[in-house]
Amino acid sequence: MEDSVRLRMRVLGVVAVALFVALFGRLWYLQALQNETFEQVATQQITRSIRTQAERGQIFDRNGRVLVQNRLSTIVTIHRDENKQALINLGYTNLDERKEFRSEMFATLARELSGSGQLTKVSNLQRAFDDPSYTDFEEIPIARDVDEELLIFIGERPDVFPGVRVTQDVVRSYPFGQAAAHILGYVGSINQSELESKEALYKIDDPDSDDPADKIDDPDGKQYRSNDEIGKAGIERFFEDDLRGIPGTRTFLVDNVGNFVAPVGEDVPPRPGSDVHLTIDIDLQVRLEFELKRALDRARDVPVEQDEPPFNAPAGSAVIMDPRNGDILAMASYPTYDPADFIEGLSQDEYDRRFNDPFEHQPLVNRAIEGTYPAASTFKPFTAIAAENFDVFGWDFVEEWNVYTSDPGYWDLQSCKIDFTGDVAGALASGCRKRNAGNQTMEGVDLQHSLTFSSDTYYYKIGEAFWVAPDDQINPNGIQITARDFGYGTTSGVQLPNERPGIMPTAELMRERHEANPDAFPRGQWTSGDNTNISIGQGDVLVTPLQLANSYAVLANGGTLYSPNIVTLIEPNEQSDDEPVEFAPRVVREPDIPDAIEQVILDGLLGVNFMEKPNISQPSGTGFPAFNEPDEGGVDFPLFEWPVAGKTGTAEKVGKADNSMYVGFGPSGSAYWSTPENEPEYVISVVLEEAGFGSKVAAPMVARMFKAIAEDDIDRAISQEEADDFYALTQSLELEAPDSTAAVDQ
Fold first, then answer.
1. Are 70 and 57 contacting, i.e. CB atoms less than 8 angstroms apart?
2. Residue 183: DSSP 8-state
3. Nearest residue to 686 via CA among 624, 621, 597, 626
4. Alpha-carbon Rg for the chain in angstroms
5. CA dist 179 → 63, 171, 288, 330 (Å)
6. What are the DSSP calls for 69-94, one per residue?
7. CA 273 to each of CA 55, 58, 276, 625, 663: distance values in angstroms, whole numbers, following the listed order
8. Contacts for 196-200 with beta carbons within 8 Å, 24 or more apart?
9. Cα 609 from Cα 587, distance rounded (Å)
10. Per-position DSSP letters for 235-247, written without gaps between them
11. Is residue 469 helix, strand or coil?
């Protein structure tokens, strides 16, 4: 037994000696033989790169005037390495101690920044500080355009804000202030979802890997990091990839503890972004915005009849297009905002007050492309075109387009099969009787005069005929098919974000909505009443002001639907190898405007503004007062020298005042009205929310706008810098002028 124990002890001793020999041998190898190698590793220098930001491209109007440019801004930054070294020097050698100090510093900094108007969260500061895309030797931006008091506050407290400094950077500048805000858009700090989206966009396959899932940063990509600026709306957002430049790089050596040693090689300078040239004329844009606001202000002053809803006129929009090529010359939306406010920063309370308060009516929304409204009577020309193309004129109870009829002011639906003789209230309550606005009666109504007088009854017949006629005779969806040919119910393709397609209702859409959500859409069965509603642009028909202008551009140019352009050229910076991109007119389709009625429709639209009241049984053209009666709120327009064709519209809103609408084009003209026949150069559409009849408010606004164009009375828009220079010069001249009173006293 003792021999067995002694044997085990000897074995353990041998194993222990062997382990110690191996351990000491490895230590001797590392310290004696590999000492020189490790000394080299410990003292070697490492190459590091930092990024230098590139300027965004500028935005110009069609005449080369700068609408968006860049300027220097005072910003607050954090420098990681300086912060770390400063804290170590202050005695915070422990990592946890430094983290705790930074948390308190960020809380103080966020409170001061937010108090000065730069809404800042502690989490945002911490995320920026930790952003791995910034090296320890870069300034990490936190806030821009800080006020002087905050600069002093930070500068006087280096022990409270170690590594925090004030520097300068380039930010956006808008020389014309609020003008064209909804077109230009604004920039702001990139959020997390935008950052993730851009990071994915600028990734390419790793050339050193066979796995398609392995990605690396695109060396030619426009990389983004926390707090970088990015387009949030309008042109700034839609053309973000063009406007943003390519950052440059600076490369240098650091030692093993991260200290700067020396620059390496040549710096790669940043490449500014491309410039974007718009189709917009800033002079026309400023005038349109002025007229839009004035029209809304005037609408609020109109007296309201008893028990009628008030004319609140809270918002509106307008579009001016060139029908010859689809260029947008001006686009206004009210209420508006100042893009510069987002550069300077807004507190959450201020943001909510301006943009989330329902009484402010969503000033960030571009109503020209995002606002959807019933088309009302502006839709009637397209119902007439559908009637001719689908052989509705002359069918059963629908007269031929050139037959004069008597309009009693209402239409009793033939499909009701109920005798409402003498029971007007019952007919109206059931929806079986459709009326003209104000129960207006008219004599001598054919297609041309149905547009001039805006007879609803004329179109009720057409709308019902489409639905009740046998399908093998008339396509029940003829109105909707025609409307889509002219651009309704789909986006136009304009180069702006958030465009809405509107709605062109059908029986199928009604059924689908009902089945998907019966509570929200209780009706699932289409009736002839629905068809009569869409025939005059009511019911569920919803269109944007841009769609209105674009559809009338087809009538003006004789049959070509364009996808509207708001950008004409993307011009790369001279340092770039990219080629310029030009946007030529983009033809979508050529809708069929029947030859038989094309001139009739034009004469009817001209009559809207030309035709005064001929007799007691006929009204005047619905736009006649706007273009001929200055004493009634209109203008004295040179119609026979510069003819305007157009259509008023009054869109009903339950419980609120009607929307006021007008769309027209000029200079036009025809032999029927004894005017020159011109090629129209301008289309204008206007929608004024809760402002009353189209003939009373929208039409006079368009008349004023067309008059200014026709008489070349569009003033040159003045930038803020030009205005400041003018007032400075005026003040200087006043100071230099001799005091005439004093001279007399002497």
1. no
2. H
3. 626
4. 36
5. 16, 18, 10, 10
6. EEEEEEEEEEEHHHHHHHHHHTT--S
7. 6, 8, 9, 50, 38
8. 198/222, 198/223, 198/224, 198/230, 199/224
9. 30
10. HHHHTHHHHS-B-
11. coil
Reduce the DSSP state of residue 165 to 3 states and report it: strand
Q: 521-538 pLDDT, tens per residue?
A: 999 999 999 999 999 999
225-249 pLDDT, tens digit per residue, is: 777 889 999 999 999 999 998 887 7
Under DSSP, the state recorded for 392 is -
Give me the residue spans of the domains in the chain.
73-168
- In degrees and rounded to multiples of 5, residue 561 shows phi and psi of -95, 120
Rounded CA separation 594/237 (Å): 41
Place of tokens 């010859």: 324
Q: Provide CB contacts within 8 A for 662, sequence distance 6+.
A: 378, 623, 626, 646, 647, 648, 649, 684, 685, 686, 694, 695, 698, 699, 701, 702
State pLDDT tens for residues 354-391.
777 777 789 999 999 999 999 999 999 999 999 999 99
Where does the pLDDT of residue 267 fall: very low under 50, low under 70, confident under 90, or very high at 90 and above? confident
Residue 469: which of 550, 380, 352, 386 has the closest Cα? 386
**How many angstroms separate the CA atoms of 435 and 427, rounded?**
11
Q: Which residue has the tokens 């390496």?
A: 264
**Dist. CA 57–CA 277, nearest whole Å:** 10
Q: Is 422 left (phi over 0), alpha (psi -120 to 50) or beta?
A: left
pLDDT tens profile 527-581: 999 999 999 999 999 999 999 999 999 999 999 999 999 999 999 988 787 899 9
Widest CA span in the chain: 140
Question: 588-624 pLDDT, tens per residue?
Answer: 999 999 999 999 999 999 999 999 988 877 889 999 9
**Spatial contact of 203 and 88, defined as CB atoms under 8 Å apart:** no
Do residues 700 and 634 touch, judged by C-beta distance below 8 A? yes
Chain centroid to Cα 337, Å, comes to 12
Q: Are 275 and 573 in contact (CB under 8 A)?
A: yes
pLDDT value of position 502:
97
Report the distance separating Cα 678 and Cα 641, nearest Å. 10
Q: What is the DSSP letter of 398?
A: S
Q: How many residues does the chain have?
A: 746
Instruction: Say if strands 275-278 and 59-60 run parallel, antiparallel, or are unpaired.
Output: parallel
Query: Model-level pTM?
Result: 0.83
